[in-house]
Design a protein that fits this description.
By secondary structure, this protein is of the alpha+beta class. It has helices at residues 3-20, 29-39, and strands at residues 51-53, 61-68, 72-79, 86-91, 94-95, 102-103, 109-115, 129-131, 137-146, 149-156, 162-168, 174-181.
Length: 184
C-alpha cells in the first residue's frame, strides 16, 4: 500500500535533481541511449587466458549449440554423461585435430575448444565452418574427433574476455558452456 507513495516521492526527487543539474535536459538522445545500453552489461572480469579442467570420463558429445545474449555470445556442448575435461584457449590458427591442417576463418581471433570426450555416433556436426554472424561469434568451426578427444573452434570478432564452465544435467548428462563477452 505504501509503494505508490514511495514511487511518487522518488519520481519527484528525480525531477527536482534533474532541474537543478545544469545541461541535464540538453543531453543528446543518442548519448543517453548509448549510456543506457552500455550500463546493462557489467564489466566482466573473465580475462582471455586459457581455461582448463582436468577430468576423465567416458561421456560422449551429442549436441553443440550457440546463442546470443545481450552481453555475450554462448556455445553449449552437450555430453551424455558426467563432465569431461576441457581446454579453451585463444590460438593464432585453428587446425584439424588429426590432420594438423589449418582452417581458414574470417574473425579477428580464434578460440580453440578441446574436450576430452569422443563424439556420439549419432551426432553429425554438419559443415566444417558454419557462419554465425553474431555480435562476437563469427563462425563455428568443426575441427574433428580423434582418439577420444574432440576439437571445435569459434572465430570471434576480437580477442575478448571469455569463461568456460561445466553444468550438470539435464538428467545424467552435463554441459560445457563457453561465454565470450561483447566487450572488455
Amino acid at each position: 500500500m505504501h509503494r505508490p507513495k514511495f514511487a511518487l516521492l522518488a519520481a519527484a526527487a528525480t525531477a527536482a535533481l534533474l532541474a537543478l543539474t545544469p545541461g541535464a535536459a540538453a543531453a543528446p538522445t543518442s548519448l543517453a541511449a548509448t549510456s543506457t545500453a552500455a550500463s546493462t552489461c557489467p564489466t566482466v572480469a573473465w580475462g582471455s587466458l586459457a581455461k582448463t579442467k582436468t577430468l576423465s570420463t567416458t561421456s560422449q558429445i551429442f549436441n553443440v549449440r550457440t546463442g546470443q545474449h545481450s552481453c555475450y555470445d554462448r556455445m553449449v556442448i552437450d555430453l551424455k554423461a558426467k563432465p569431461a575435461g576441457f581446454s579453451v584457449k585463444y590460438v593464432d590458427t585453428l587446425r584439424g585435430i588429426a590432420s594438423g591442417l589449418p582452417v581458414r576463418t574470417t574473425g579477428g581471433a580464434n578460440l580453440q575448444i578441446l574436450i576430452h570426450a569422443p563424439v556420439s555416433a549419432s551426432y553429425s556436426p554438419g559443415a566444417t565452418v558454419k557462419n554465425l554472424g553474431y555480435s562476437t561469434f563469427k563462425q563455428q568451426v568443426w575441427l574433428g574427433s580423434f582418439e577420444g578427444e574432440t576439437m571445435l573452434g569459434i572465430s570471434t570478432r576480437a580477442r575478448l574476455p571469455m569463461r568456460a564452465f561445466l553444468l550438470d544435467g539435464p538428467g545424467t548428462g552435463s554441459r560445457l558452456v563457453i561465454d565470450v563477452a561483447h566487450h572488455w
